[in-house]
Structure formats: C-alpha cells, structure tokens
Amino acid sequence: MKVRVPLGSPERKTVSTGKASKTSRKPPMWSASGLLTMTPSRSRTPRSRKKSMFSLPGGALVDRLDRRRVMWVSDAVRCATVGLLGLAVLLDLASLPVLYAAFFVLGAATVPFSAASTSILPSLVTREDLAGANGRLFGAQVVAGEMVGPPLGGLLFAFSASLPFLLDAGSFAAASAMVLAMRGSFRVPQPGGSLPTTLWAEIDEGFAWLWGHGLLRTLALALGVMNLTSSATTAILVLFAGERLGLGPVGYGVLLSSLAAGGVLGALSAGRVAGWLGAGTTMRAGLLTEASTSAIIALWQDAYVVGMMLALFGFHALVWNVVTISLRQELVPDGLLGRVNSSYRLLGMGGAAAGALLGGLLAKGFGLAAPFWFAAASVAVMTLVAWRTIGNGAVTAARQNASTSA
Description:
Blueprint: H1 33-37, H2 46-64, H3 67-90, H4 96-120, H5 130-159, H6 163-180, H7 199-212, H8 214-234, H9 237-244, H10 249-277, H11 279-299, H12 303-331, H13 337-349, H14 352-366, H15 370-386, H16 392-405
Helix pairs in contact: 2-4, 2-7, 2-13, 3-4, 3-6, 4-13, 5-10, 5-12, 7-13, 8-13, 8-14, 8-15, 10-11, 10-12, 11-12, 11-15
C-alpha cells in the first residue's frame, strides 16, 4: 500500500523497475512515508493510473479547500481502508473484489493528498529552501520505500499476512494526526467579489495556464515522453536481467539496489547540483543522461556496466524530480498550484500504461534491447525539441515574470 507522493510528488521515475511493480514497488510499509514525507513518481503502478482519473478534479478541489484539511482527511480515509483490508485478511475474508475496491479507494484518496502536499510546501518553506526540502523528502521516500519497506514488509508478512496492512493503517493514522497538528490555515484566499464558478471551469483555467506557459508545457511533455519510454524499458527489465545479463533473483535485486542508491544520492544532492549548474542546465543534462544511459544499456551485456547506468539513471531521475517540482512551486501562482500540478501530472503520466504495452511488443518483435533503443531515440528527439526552451536563460526569464506577476 505504498504512498509515493512526498511534499512535491515525484511524477518522474522513482527507483523501481519492471518486476518491482508487483513486489518492491508496492511494499505494504511504504505508507509510513506519510510520517517522513507527508505522503509516486513517476509512479507507474496500476493504482497510479487510477489516480490519473481523479487528477484534475483533485487539483481543483485543493485550490478550493484548506490544503491541510485535505491532507489529514485523505490520510484518515486511507487509514480506514487499509485497516479494513487488514482485518479482512486476518479474518480470511479477503477476495479479489475486496482488493480491487480497496485499491480504488486508496487511489482516489491519494490524488487530493498528492495535490495538496505538493501545493502546501511553498507555504512552509522559503523559495530558496524548496529544492533542499524536496530533496530531503524524496531521499527519505527512497530509503523507506525502496530499501527498508520491501524487506520489512516481507518480514512482517512471514509472521502474519495481515500484519503489514494493519501496521500500514497505523502509519496512515499517525501521519494524519501529524498533519492535523500543523498550525494555521492553508486555504487559498479567494478574491473579493469573485463570481461563483464550476469545478470544470476551474480545471480548464488551470490547464490553460499550464499550456500557455512555454517552459512548464515543455517540461510536462518531456515528462510524458520519459515516462512513456521508461515504462517500456521497466516492463521488460526483469527479462533483460535474466536473459541478457544472466542474473538470478539475487543479482536482479542488486541491480535494483544500484538504482535506489543512485536515487538517494540524487535526491540529497539535487539542490547543490542545480545551484552549481543552474536549473536549466541541470534539466538539459538530465535529458542527455536519460538518452545516453538507455543507449549504453542496449549496447552492453555486462551486468556491472548496466548497474552503473541504472545508478546514474536513478541519480538523474531524482534530480529531475526535485528541480522540476521546485520550479513549478516557484512559478505557478498559489491559487492555481493544485490545478496546474494536476494537469502537469496528467500530461506527464498519461502515456505510462501505453509504454509498458509498447515495451512488451518491441521486445517480442525486435529483442530485449529494442525498448532501450526506443527510449534512447525518443528522449534524444525530445532533447532537441526542448533544448532552447529549458535553458538557464528561459528559467531566469520565467522566474522574473513570476515575480512581476505576484
């Protein structure tokens, strides 16, 4: 029952792959991240695709309501859902319909939490501290969700199948209580004399704002391409590791660990990297890294080389998360932040499901290296398209415009 959305939801690749979508990507304990991160990320699990169904209305509601209240109520709902599921497992009443219903409720409740947690952070830290705060949150997420959560969930499951779910519910309860204890009001002030409007009109306003912002529109489309291609590669990674690299279960686990280790390092150093290179150059370097790591993995059949490339990929993915989410938190007006973030996430994650299918088809038709070649070529083209739009000059101009409009 993993909650993968820190304050500043990582829409980009977190540090999970292929087979992990059934194992390490859904450790029952990761909802304890609520305690660490106040709640995916490029998350590509089936539940993340359910969440995309509610993304736009969820963002609009976050801009209407007190964001702190949205967060603690969402966690309370998830606590009750996971707790009831744990009781069903304990009493041997769990069934596929029960599981599907629980996953649906969890996905629906996670959407407003994700939007609220991303939107509330600029109210809690200064603009200069956004990258550092997001980096620490993402680092905690990776450590707990990818390194500690899976083995701990397996250990608890060995004692009792219901125990991971019940402990997960407890973590949601604790997270809800901690958010509830935050002082202050986090509701966006509404302009005096403004006329009532519909939810869908507000959604359209947020999407139109995003589409009209050249820098953020380009980043959203780049995210969509990267999620499409990374879904294609992660869908077949377990086969790639076994058949091309000759790795067994232990070797595959080490391969995933290299990805996670790179992600932790990337999350914790993202602020310094962006401060050194500038946000624009950092994003350009990220696109080049993504294209080159995919090409090298396609070329080499050496497990050590692939492990190093996955570590580099994990580093880049978390740096990308921190930089792009912090940038949105800087540039988007507070009253639109929930809607713009939800529209951005929809554009960025919409192709993930198709990517997994495409990866399987490419591997079946052209071999296991084909999805990686597809990823390298697609991201290379996206890099050429986005290059001028995402440079340091464009970021500086966008920041100046945001300051002028504030």
